[in-house]
Amino acid sequence: MQHLTVLGTGVLGSQIIFQSAYMGKDVVAYDINDEILAKLPERWEYLKDAYRRDLADATDEKLDAAVARIRATADLADAMKDADIVIEAVPERLDIKQQTWEAVAAVAPADTIFATNSSTLLPSDIAPFTGRPEKFLALHFANEVWKFNVGEVMGHEGTDPEVFEAVAAFAAEIGMVPVRIHKEQPGYVLNSLLVPFLDAAAQLFVKGIASPEDIDNTWRIATGAPSGPFQIFDVVGMMTPYYLNASSDDPIKREFAEIIKRDYIDKGYLGKGSGRGFYEYK
Questions:
Q1: What is the 3-state secondary structure (H, E, C) of 188-250?
Q2: What CA–CA distance (Å, rounded) separates 120 from 117?
Q3: What region holds the 3-hydroxyacyl-CoA dehydrogenase C-terminal domain (predicted)?
């Protein structure tokens, strides 16, 4: 599968785009308007710096070649016309993902494989909206995909086993370590472990038990981990925890979402990729 289309150019979507192009794929970056797409060159420069810092083989020539393999468009039909595989990375809301896949199904070639990068939603809840449930599954990436390079592959009961293996092979081709998930599980392996950890940190913060800095320091010092939970929130970006918590039945989670929106999102502090989240980054 040489031709990839990525739906959504946010924090993780842009990383999937750049990583796939870096590994030699031809990538179409789709988003809903040209104003969003106009910001991508700045994002590519940010990712180039990250690759130079973290990867020994990241030469200027290789990075420039990656950017040259990326084409941006706000025309969905144009984005789909040559796609062998589509990866969706739109906001983490079931209704948005369902509506997105309905629109994609109307214009995508019949043999195109569909994959969602959803962090928490089940493929079976989205599959009926794709028009081709047998060719639909999840391919989930961790943030900073060039460095934390797991690719969790999770189908649903109707996913064709050959499609499942083809997507696992594609994940390996773009530099991921494929992790085959044998049954549907909200959060896969990674987020099944990570989300309760982040939720515990958010509760400590909302209840006024300790500051984000002290919570992070405690975790790093006591366990030897390189990052604390609020540093991880900054890498993930503020929009994902906001969407995950804003409609929760838990009042503590809703309050955390309100804090994130009021004190961070509304001020443009969207996480590490924007230069500021719980911490400031140069």
A1: CCHHHHHHHHHHHHHHHHHCCCCCHHHHHHHHHHHHCCCCCHHHHHHHHCCHHHHHHHHCCCC
A2: 9
A3: 187-281
In a domain, 281, yes or no: no
CA dihedral 165, 190, 103, 130 (to 10 degrees): 50
Task: Residue 241: give its domain's CATH number.
Answer: 1.10.1040.10
Q: What CA dihedral angle connects 47, 96, 120 and 4, to 10 degrees?
A: -40
Q: Give the pTM.
A: 0.85
CA proximity to 273, closest of 39, 19, 22: 39
138 plus 216 within the same structural domain: no
The enclosing H or E element of 20 equals helix 11-22
Instruction: State both tokens at 90.
Output: 């739109």
In a domain, 186, yes or no: no
Average pLDDT over residues 29-44: 96
Domain total of the chain: 2
At 120, is the pLDDT very low, low, confident or very high (cuts 50, 70, 90)?
Answer: confident
Coil, helix or strand for 27? strand
245 and 176 within one domain: no
Buried-state track 217-227, b at ≥16 Cβ within 10 A, e below 16: eebeeeeeeee
Q: What is the mean pLDDT of residues 172-183?
A: 97
Residue-wise pLDDT for 129-164, tens only, equals: 999 999 999 999 998 999 999 999 999 999 999 999
Please say which residue of 181, 206, 231 terminates a domain: 181
With contact defined as beta carbons under 8 Å apart, do 43 and 14 qualify?
yes
- Which of 61-65, 170-174, 268-272 comes out lowest in average pLDDT? 268-272
